[in-house]
Design goal:
Largest sheet: 7 strands, mixed
Structural class: alpha/beta
Cofactor: Mn(2+)
Helix content: 25-40%
Distance between the termini: 29 Å
Keywords: Manganese, Metal-binding
CATH class of the largest domain: Alpha Beta
Number of helices: 9
Strand order of the largest sheet: 1-2-6-3-7-17-8
Organism: Anaerosporomusa subterranea
CATH architecture of the largest domain: 3-Layer(aba) Sandwich
Protein name: Peptidase M20
Order of helices and strands: HHEEEEEHEHEEEEEHEEEHEHEHEH
CATH superfamily of the largest domain: Zn peptidases
CATH topology of the largest domain: Aminopeptidase
GO molecular function: dipeptidase activity; metal ion binding; para-aminobenzoyl-glutamate hydrolase activity
């Protein structure tokens, strides 16, 4: 398989959920071996795959990273894996770019590292790869993501895609059970949760800082309808453009949740999880991707950076190793109706452009 579209078409037929990407990983590892890379499989005990090519000449280590997992969608009442976020497209572009770079002898200094990362949708794949040492020797890392049509057109790409920080906040409320005829003897967990939701909705940070927090799940059931429930659980989805804003928002939200529960005499255990950091890029990598996009598309194809409230675990690589120079571009591909939609589709011809942007960027750094 030499065509990026052919690789995409194949990967699209074998979607697998996070940390279960066995067929996907096996295919990618085999293709890397055929291309001449030294391949590490089952990275850190996961389905992660790394390909390494060492030029033998002193120079930086540059990594191309692609996520490989699919999403879970309910179809006819059954959980099915479906590629509706474009990870199969990302893998196809990174793989074929790496193959082309090897065929053309373009890595003349330093090392090229190809990282196929599992479980991006779970928010834990990047951390597993980092823990296994995947980026210990990496000086710079590039990633790519398909973008919806309303953000960027087929004829353009963006040199920096700024994802927001994203977290989940959980409150487990504990009241006192009682008969519905004697509510004064109990503490209603529903009342406590409702008070906490109202308190969180009243949080105000600097309006110049982009953020949002909203309750997205509320579960409570005493088992019957004539009893005061003693336990309830609420989940909040929390997002912020900046990591510093996220820290303030989480702190205020925890205080508000506890105060809300206390107004009715309940207690609450508050935890935050699924923490995804906001994007932080280095200027020289944005410049590199801007140059690459301009070279591939022409000047009219370069769009200004885009901000999105979506999250991406790619940004753990920078958070956990701040010395890494990171770049992440958004590929215009006429994607509709949206990412994570079960009917997501896009113009596959855009993948050729995405592959070429990656090739240009690597050659600029390692072909000296």
């Amino acid at each position: 398989m030499s065509s990026v579209i052919e690789v995409y078409d194949f990967l699209h037929t074998i979607p697998e959920l996070g940390f279960q990407e066995y067929k996907t990983a096996a295919f990618l590892a085999n293709e890397l071996k055929k291309a001449g890379f030294t391949v590490i499989e089952k990275v850190g005990g996961t389905t992660g795959v790394i390909g390494v090519y060492d030029s033998g000449v002193d120079g930086p280590t540059m990594a191309l990273r692609a996520d490989i997992d699919a999403l879970g969608h309910m179809v006819d009442g059954k959980l099915c894996a479906m590629h509706t976020c474009g990870h199969d497209a990302h893998s196809a572009m990174v793989l074929t770019a790496a193959e082309d770079l090897m065929k053309t002898g373009s890595v003349k200094q330093g090392k090229l590292k190809v990282i196929f990362q599992p479980a991006e949708e779970l928010g834990t794949g990047a951390l597993a790869m980092i823990k296994a040492g995947a980026v210990d020797d990496v000086d710079m890392i590039l990633g790519v993501h398909l973008r919806p049509g309303e953000e960027v057109s087929m004829a353009q790409s963006v040199p920096a895609l700024y994802h927001a920080a994203a977290e989940r906040l959980q409150g487990v409320f504990h009241g006192v059970p009682a008969h519905g005829a004697r509510p004064h003897l109990g503490v209603n967990a529903i009342d406590a949760a409702a008070a906490a939701i109202t308190a969180v909705n009243a949080i105000h940070l600097n309006p110049n800082e982009s953020y949002s927090i909203k309750a997205t799940r509320f579960t409570c059931d005493a088992g019957v309808t004539n009893a005061i429930p003693a336990e309830a659980t609420v989940i909040w989805d929390v997002r912020s453009e900046l990591n510093s804003t996220m820290a303030k928002l989480i702190e205020k939200a925890k205080s508000a949740i506890k105060a809300g529960a206390a107004t009715v005499g309940a207690t609450v255990a508050v935890t935050n999880y699924q923490s995804i950091p906001a994007a932080e890029y280095t200027g020289d990598m944005i410049d590199l991707l801007s140059e690459a996009i301009t070279a591939v598309y022409g000047p009219e194809g370069l769009r200004e950076p885009v901000k999105t409230a979506g999250g991406e675990d790619f940004h753990f690589y920078i958070k956990e190793k701040p010395s890494i120079k990171a770049g992440y571009f958004g590929l215009g591909c006429d994607l509709t109706p949206g990412i994570h939609h079960p009917d997501m589709k896009f113009n596959k011809n855009a993948l050729e452009k995405g592959k070429d942007v990656l090739i240009y960027a690597v050659r600029k750094v390692l072909n000296s």
